[in-house]
Amino acid sequence: MSLAEMQAPIHRDEAAIAAVVEGLRATYGDRLSTSQAVREQHGHTTTWLKTQAPDAVVFAQSTEEVSDIVKRCAARKVPVIAFGAGSSLEGHVNAPGGGVCIDLSQMNAILEVNAEDLDCKVQAGVTRKQLNTDLRDSGLFFPIDPGADATIGGMTATRASGTNAVRYGTMKDAVLGLTVVTATGAVIHTGGRARKSSAGYDLTRLFVGSEGTLGIVTEITLKLFGQPEAISGGMCSFPSIKAACDAVIMTIQCGLPVARIELLDPLQVRACNIYSKLTLPEEPTLFLEFHGSESGVREQAETFGGIAEEFGGSEFRWATKAEDRTALWQARHDAYWASFTLRPGAKGVATDVCVPISRLADCVAETQRDLDENKLLATIVGHVGDGNFHVLVLVDEEDAGEVERAEAFVGRLNGRAIDFGGTCTGEHGIGQGKMKYMVKEHGPALDVMRAVKQALDPDRILNPGKILPEA
Amino acid sequence: MSLAEMQAPIHRDEAAIAAVVEGLRATYGDRLSTSQAVREQHGHTTTWLKTQAPDAVVFAQSTEEVSDIVKRCAARKVPVIAFGAGSSLEGHVNAPGGGVCIDLSQMNAILEVNAEDLDCKVQAGVTRKQLNTDLRDSGLFFPIDPGADATIGGMTATRASGTNAVRYGTMKDAVLGLTVVTATGAVIHTGGRARKSSAGYDLTRLFVGSEGTLGIVTEITLKLFGQPEAISGGMCSFPSIKAACDAVIMTIQCGLPVARIELLDPLQVRACNIYSKLTLPEEPTLFLEFHGSESGVREQAETFGGIAEEFGGSEFRWATKAEDRTALWQARHDAYWASFTLRPGAKGVATDVCVPISRLADCVAETQRDLDENKLLATIVGHVGDGNFHVLVLVDEEDAGEVERAEAFVGRLNGRAIDFGGTCTGEHGIGQGKMKYMVKEHGPALDVMRAVKQALDPDRILNPGKILPEA
């Protein structure tokens, strides 16, 4: 499947689209936009996929409005695409058949914080940073941190995770319940505030990660965590990726409750040194963070120090002061942008895969060999406690041969991850960009996914052209 | 919905059933049984629901055989019911329309243990104790422990949990991937060995807890955990249920990574004293267990001691020796059987609900008042770190009035839990017994569950008459 095929245009019923847009304009007035700039921004993709703009963007302010908009689209079989912060990476918000984009960013109220139960309820447009700012004085925090300041709705839709997942889980684990607008415009509530339930099908988990193709998430009930009494962190260099990965495996196997354990390859370290003005040795490096009691984090760090030594790691370099730790993790979060310092003007092709951690070192090593052989410049960072790593290929867009080599590389990388018993995406999602790997990864299970889609959205109005390749 | 309605017989196509059974007999010979004893044992329910036996029981030995049996049933629209250990509590394995029961207990091979990745793959008939016995020398363990020695397949089907869930999660969290035979007899694989994935719909979580109504689980890939370096535990009495629950809330809020925190009401303590020859004060009591490093468990226990004191708890009584700890937890696991010592010859009506922990004390207090007002004898135990508690009503089956009062009580209890923002079952599942609460708990979301069922099993051959009440 070529890039063009992945983004294949979908049949448009021009009259239906025009009628729905005009009707919405009458109701939503200024909160509906058909300007080219707004439409393009809402079909914008952060990476290499081309923008496919919707016909109109409506800024919804309530679940009832989302329901109203979906009902109108359903009546005329017009595509409807939910939009949060637009930070997804695989063309999730593109509109290959045009239609109506529902921008949820104005639905940004934090509806409830239940400190005793360690949960909260937010509207879909709340961002993760907004939530944590709001929680700051409550003693609680929400741990899931994809690179961007994504919305909770978008993170739910893509089953996002981030650097803390090894300790605190992913959106699959964090979401207790949802309010969802279905393809008919019905409003349903899934899950609830109980910590566990065996009452019927797990619709919550069905909608988490469904990328707006089964329903539009408007409210999310989330698990929260107590802010740890103490946090410590630091970094450690290793003679090889293999040695670093072996240290990670041992760490996880020992049951050390590490909060973050991130791998940066030497090229990524160089980029971070330049961008974030650091002076780290340009070697395979682990960034770590420990959460717990004062004595607990000390003990964890000592245990890790012993493990690192066993695998030839450098002495553990502490970021003892809070500001040093913040600087370290800011550098990690800026790794994506830092990479571009290695090749200013280049286009970034970002991809992520996830493998069982025992296969991580081999998978990364093969990937580096593949990059070298194909003369591609790329940085690698990984949430290695989960076996998840990201490759950012820096490509000269004007060089057709290089673009082709990069696309072919991404294909091999994803196939390799699946062959290693892993998945073509640990946290970015499928969108348009990874549809072509769905058959290899899921085989006949794809038919079951298609049956679920057919049952919940028979007219295929919800974010069409995503996740499921044509049969 | 009355008990009779919950167990309403389903139309039987006698000729189709006879033809399928005869065909299966020709293939499976001795591994097919139509004896009344075997059939009744496979429709046996541990609690108050009446047995509805299947027409035949086949002992399958492979996924291919399960596929073959389902295909034959599908061809004639004959019901097919998966059976593990038969330890479910809500009539899950009953056959209100007869049909074929597939007993998976002979599929009890542990297929893989991947120590480096902390995962394993087992056939559905492996029991939790069998798995842990097998793992003993590996340094790993599987934490999920419903009271019975259930099969992993059955635990997957009911989204089971147990005393360790507060620390290690439920089957929702433990299952990484599945092999499932669908309603057409197709064999699919969901999930995989990667620790996380954003690649499409979460079919794994859709099948977990679906009680054999969407597909038959034949193989399960499970997360494992390292055996903790140190374990400590003990118990503590409180002046009231409220005080005990407040101590639990504080414990969870502090982020204390308690491995088990179990509440026993005074009546349950009395029963355990008799049955397990203990001498505990007959007061609201918490049993606790801490996992971690030597110093970590000491610190956790000290922290908990401080919390207990704050809420008027007794001094923490340590079970320092491993055999004392084993005796304590054996008593907890035997609590169900112990309850019958309070009223020998009684029938047990077991039910479980789960609420946000801030509502737990109120929910338990109202429940005890309800029991008193209705002159019902019942014990209460709870996995209170999750807000989940069990009530076992001891009923004289011969006393129709008492049976009716018990049924009405269970109805109020389930309604109360839902009204408190909770669920009608934390871990037992719906089966037949809790179908009547599905409308109240899920509202219009039930239509989405029905659509999923219709999509995956349009002829309703998979465990019919369970989970979803007739619309």
TrEMBL record, chains A, B:
Enzyme Commission number, as recorded: 1.1.2.4
InterPro entries: FAD-bd_oxidored_4_C, FAD-bd_PCMH, FAD-bd_PCMH-like_sf, FAD-bd_PCMH_sub2, FAD-linked_Oxase-like_C, Oxid_FAD_bind_N, Vanillyl_alc_oxidase_C-sub2
Cofactor(s) it depends on: FAD
Keyword Transit peptide listed: yes
Annotated ranges, domain FAD-binding PCMH-type: 50-227
Entry keywords, A to Z: FAD, Flavoprotein, Oxidoreductase, Transit peptide
SUPFAM superfamilies found in the cross-reference section: FAD-binding/transporter-associated domain-like (SSF56176), FAD-linked oxidases, C-terminal domain (SSF55103)
Leading EC class: oxidoreductase
Similarity comment: Belongs to the FAD-binding oxidoreductase/transferase type 4 family.
Protein name: D-lactate dehydrogenase (cytochrome)
